[in-house]
Amino acid sequence: MIIFIDTNIIYGHWHLQNANFQFLLNFLENTNSTLAVSDIVCDEIDNKFREELNAIRTTLKNNFKKFNALNNTTSEILPELPNQVYSFKNLLTQRTDYVDFFHFTEVSNEQVVKRAIKKIKPFKEDDKGFRDTLIWLSFLDYLKLKKNEDVAFINNNSSDFFDLTKTNLHDNLADDIKSYGITNNFKVYESIKDFINAEVRDEHKYTSEIIMTDFIYPQQLIIEQSIEQYINSQSQEWLTDILKEHSRAFEKLAYLTTFNFRIIAGIEDPTLLHWKEIEVNKFFGELRFFLQNIEIQLMLPLKFYNENNSSFPRKHRVEINTDYVTMTIFSKAYMNISFNFDTSTNLVKNLEINLFGLL
Asked: Cβ distance 250 to 298 under 8 Å?
């Protein structure tokens, strides 16, 4: 099997430590499958990593200035930049031998321009889609050498690549496959989690009941702590997008400076949706549950808060400083997570949040 992934599948998981990607790497080795990655994707991930790193350093510098102003000090202790330049391609080749990187230099400008004029997917009505078109056409060139292998196409940009049902490629792309003489069987997925759920079958050494009783229930506190660490390590943009997506009360949320997430009352009604043993004493799991009560502290500019106060949740606590407001929200939440679990040490590792919303 050939497994294609785009930048949107990797973004935010810079070092490929999350449970879903760990499982995917294990799947490659066990099934002799190949991960197909465009050179464009590698360059784009490297660039986004640098942008994220610079943004974090800028935030740290600004926070140090506020700290010094508040305490009348001049200290400034910033973490050093890593000596080794980040390279997604190098990182991936260190993690697996089952990867191919395909080039885009053979795609002609004339071919791309014609598609842009005719608005052929993945081009959009506003002429955006140059990068996606280069990746798509170069992937088809790559597949000419990989006949008769099934293709798993994993891309979160479903509007530009998939049909309305999100179960097949868009008709424009299906026409491309025919015109290139490609006979590979395509299946489409919006995430690695969707791919895992569709393609991987559970083993029978354990049962869901045994896993829940022996491993999940006794380790709920560790899972909760891992969730707190995961969320508090994310960017302001990540939390802003989550809150906007799942609650109308946060549609106008912007200018989030810092935040803190805390679980007050923990996991309730957990359901093990999927699991698989990936090696001796280690398994991958996907868990759905509620969090009975959580606390989210959001630091916002005072002016912005005053202008949008009425749109935020009614039940929140506010602490007002000179220029900023700390808004504290209490809520029940629902969550879907993936993780790795070591049955010999009872350790939860590589936790990733797939779904998170407030109730």
From this structure: no
Domain ends where: 164, 199, 234? 199
Task: Give which of 293, 217, 284 is closest to 261, Cα–Cα.
Answer: 293
| Residue 282 vs residues 72, 81, 287: alpha-carbon distances, Å | 51, 34, 16
* Domain shared by 56 and 155, yes or no: yes
Residues 190 and 258 both lie in one domain: no
Q: What is the pLDDT of residue 201?
A: 60
The residue written with tokens 């330049």 in the block is 85
Interatomic CA distance for residues 110 and 116, integer angstroms? 10
Place of tokens 């003489």: 181
Confidence of residue 224 (pLDDT cuts 50, 70, 90): very high
Number of domains forming the structure of the chain: 2
Please determine, for residue 292, whether its predicted confidence score (pLDDT) is greater than 70.
Answer: yes
Mean pLDDT over 277-284 rounds to 81
Reported residue count of the chain is 359
Which structural domain, as residue segments, surrounds residue 30? 2-199
